[in-house]
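Hi V.,

You were right to ask for the full record rather than a summary. Here it is.
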Amino acid sequence: MFKFNLIIAFRNLLKNKEYTLINLLGLSVGIMSFLFILLWINDELSYDRFHEKSSRIYRIDWHSDNPQTRTPHPMTYTMVNDFAEVEDAVSLTPVWGAGLTQPDRLVKNGEIRFMENRIFAADTTFFRIFSFPLKSGNPKNCLTDVGSIVITESIAQKYFGDEDPMGKMITINFGFDVPFRITGIMKEIPDNSHFHFDFLLGYNTLKAVNTGDFFEWSDFGHYNYLLLGENADPRELERKMIGWAIPYLDWPETNLNQLKEGIIGFKLTPLEKIHLDSHIKWELETNGDIAYVYTFSALGIFILLIAIINYMNLSTARTAFRKVEIGVKKVLGASRKRLQAQFLLESVISTLGATLLAIILFEIFSVPLGNIAQKNFELDYANPVTIILLLAVATGCGVLAGLYPAFILSGFQANSILKGGGSVKRNRPVFRNLLVVFQFAISIFLIIGTLTISKQIDFFQTKKLGFNSDQVIVVAIQDTLVLQNYESVKADLLTDHRIRKISAVSNIPGRRFNQNPIQWVSSEDSYPCSEIRVDHDFVQSLDLKIISGRDFSVDRIHDVENVFIINEAAAKLYDWDDPVEEELIWYDDEMTRKGKIIGVVEDFHFQSLHTTIEPLILYVDPDDLNYFLIRLDASGIQETISYLEEKFTALDPENPFSYFFLDDDFSKLYVAEKRMQKVSGYFTVLAIIISCIGLFGLSAYSAERRTKEIGIRKVNGASSLGIIRMLSFEYIRWIMVAFVVAAPVGYI
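Predicted structure:
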């Protein structure tokens, strides 16, 4: 019986080649899109799960009015000692802000030199917590000795070629050259990790050269991870941590009371949720967003539904052509269930064929779409799970697409059909039209969503930031002699008429900023405040607007000693009539500074537009400058850059000259949105194509069904344009209904 039904199914599919092709095309595009979206979602959900103990690893975060990922280094071993639930722990951090706030570092192996920024330091427990496999070296002791370092395979190839680097030396410049012995070669970190590095050195090396409070409880500058026991309850541990750190912290009593009451405190974030759920200050890398996962999940389901609706519509629309076949079969004794099975089989065969075509399309478009989404889209056909998934998608779509048509077609009465009746009930075309409304409503909604994302990207790109970044290039200050003589370097460069302005800063607008408390001398309240150490020309170089007070002046010697400029957001922290001349205490990383406010600048977006403008303090500090900001004349930019390269190479022959444009660097903050715009745009186009394929099939069927009517109208003088208008209006009106339904939802 199955064989007979199979033969009949193939015959029917081949008999109606045009509609079979339309169905195959619509279903294949829908299934291909669904596969891409499914792989994207799976990749996003897989972050950090490759670690053997990922379900038991938690990051310690600081939560307050200004939550952040960084906490004090001593927390790790102190918690291992104080809490039985904590099995092990590790601290790690980008070395002295490399890649976050400070310039790239020069790494050397003899004459081979490159600027690098993915340099991390960690405790010796690192490989006990994280399952990053070593190709060479012992994970138990590769970070034990002072001066030991682990590098990745790509870095080994980059600096040593085919030579075995184990035991050999490389040098990293941190203002002075520090030699390291290679004690481990690590395999490349998977893409689905929430942090990546190329060099990993031991904290003991940092402790040997760092004389500050970097490793004390006072410094919130480390990324701390705990490995909890098998039966540990992280929420219960969080409750135990309320007030636990009070004996270790030398804080004002007000803050300690808030810590004791749980108003502020330490929270545990599961490793597996960091990528999608954590978006607080000082994330190691830009994370994904669970909202995108929900959005793409809905998008994949919608596209598949549109393809299935196409099949249902075309199948039910062609019922009139199969009435006689059904009537004869019923007269010969075919039961309704048998007919339903046959129609479902036809549907499943169609979706199996569509799935094969979808796989071909997937392989064609996997690389270009992968480049856009920054994902590696691959189907492992040797994996049984992949085969089961593909079969499940094919059969599931087949059953869903064929279920409704099967019940309709099998429901005709044989006597009615053979007597010339047996037409479909009147409500069935209405249902088919409702399906058209539904699929086009989805398409229109997706169009609105894509346009909204485009407007958001346009907002990011055109929004006035409050400072002028046009033709500003950023050059890192790598050499201490250049830093010590930066004023003379500036004066020399400004003699060239193509260079308009130069300033030097500690942090670049758009990147990370240190935060420390500021406090008005007449108040007990302190507030976190971002900070930039600048030279006297910073405000003028970026065309910032002073709205109260004055700018820094090189003619005033005291402007290098404890005077501050703040932004409007900082000026609103306290009940000042006018903040100028008010005294402020700034608890910076090195010392407590007390000084007067000399000016207020208009708020400007020194960080991403994703965040509100935070309080900011500017302070002249010639000893802590990391970058030159150089504004060039708009003409002959490449020639000017060549001139700067020549100048900086002469000043600092040890470090390769490198630069970037400030506005280009700022635009990188919105890479995720731009990627989302492209990906959602492509899939929206595919959804529209699928809907149009279905509409084309329905229109072709409508024209075929009304051939006699069209002939009579033609004989009676109807024009071709009038016939097209008549046939088009049948479905255009339902598309308009779809717009009326989708537009308000899209607007909301």
